[in-house]
Amino acid sequence: RYLVYLNRSRSLDLSGFFGGLKRSIVSGKILDGLEMNLLYTRARLEAIYRQQQPHER
């Protein structure tokens, strides 16, 4: 058995002269990623539901 841990966090300096621009970009990427993950999760759950037999619902 293996356990793999990937830490993908990065430290961003969101203050200073370009802080507002950086925050705007980061916020947009976070929201886009969240939307994609929610759509993917919904599609997977709906596919599983459609595959179930009527008596399993």
Can you characterise this structure?
The chain has 57 residues and is mostly helical. It has a domain at 19-56. It has 1 helix and no strands. The chain has one helix at residues 19-51.
Q: How many beta-strand elements? A: 0
Fraction of residues in β-strands: under 5%
Helix and strand sequence = H
Q: What structural category arises from helix and sheet content?
A: mainly alpha
Question: What would the principal axes of the Cα set say about the shape?
Answer: elongated
Low-confidence stretches: none
- Biggest beta sheet summary: none
**Helix fraction bin:** 55-70%
Rg computed from alpha carbons, rounded to a whole number of angstroms: 19 Å
Mean pLDDT, to the nearest integer, reads: 82
N- and C-termini, Cα separation: 35 Å
Short structural description:
The chain is mostly helical and 57 residues long. 58% of the residues lie in helices and 0% in strands. The longest helix is centred in the middle third of the chain and has 33 residues, at 19-51.
Key phrases:
58% helix, 1 helix, mainly alpha, 57 residues, 0% strand
